[in-house]
Amino acid sequence: MSYGLSGLLRAIERFEPERGAQFESFAMHRIRGAMLDALRSLDWVPRQVRRDAREMERAEVALRTELGRPPTESELADHFGLDLAALRARILGIANSRIYSFDAPLPGHGTDGLEGGGSLLDVVPSEGYAEPQKALDSKETARALQGVIAELPERQQFVLSCYYREDLRLGEIAEILCLSESRVSQLHTKALISLRAAIAAAPHRERPLPR
Q1: Number of neighbouring beta carbons within 10 Å of residue 27
Q2: Each residue's pLDDT tens digit, 5-53
Q3: Of 132, 160, 130, nearest to 145 (Cα)?
Q4: pTM greater than the 0.70 cutoff
Q5: Which residues pair with 119 in a beta bridge?
Q6: If we measure between CA atoms, which residue out of 112, 113, 111, 109 comes closest to residue 123?
Q7: What is the extent of the structural domain holding 10?
Q8: What CA–CA distances, in Å, run from 198 to 148, 163, 177?
Q9: 163 and 94, same structural domain?
Q10: Angle at the Cα of 152 (from 151 to 153), degrees rounded to 5?
Q11: Is residue 25 domain-shared with residue 83, that is, in the same domain?
Q12: Can you tell me the distance from the alpha carbon of 193 to that of 61, in angstroms, rounded to the nearest whole number?
């Protein structure tokens, strides 16, 4: 609200009624711009990485719809005109910018926090469910996700299983697979992108996935 008020004040200072524009339209543009500029200044992730993430998801959706299955890394690399090393570097950049745990304690809410236990899952809204956990417990959602996961390459399935079912860290999974931790991080992010793409491409399936 404070950023919006700053934008409103700037709009008042710069508004020129003789130009014939309505103040409301002029002010809304300034207010929105002030808010977006402030949010961008607080974002520690470079804007190019954000653009890469959006483009990667759009490419996943387009290729999945065209091929009827998750695209391979080689197919994604061809789509972007990159070699595999460059594609993996891009995926790693995305991985380093936005991997979150719904079970991780919120700041000040951990076992040593002043406000007791609490996680991201407790505060994230979910359309159609009174509680986000019910969305995760839905049998329909579980079946749909199982089907999508079954289409993923074996290594990606293994990483997801170890990370989310066995609670292993990426470094521990890397040791099992004899890979670098950064490579496992790439596989993890690629799997998550594929899952999001499957949900986004749901209208093209005979049985849409729940959102």
Answers
A1: 19
A2: 999 999 999 898 888 888 998 899 899 989 988 887 776 666 777 788 8
A3: 160
A4: no
A5: 105
A6: 109
A7: 2-42
A8: 7, 20, 26
A9: yes
A10: 120
A11: no
A12: 9
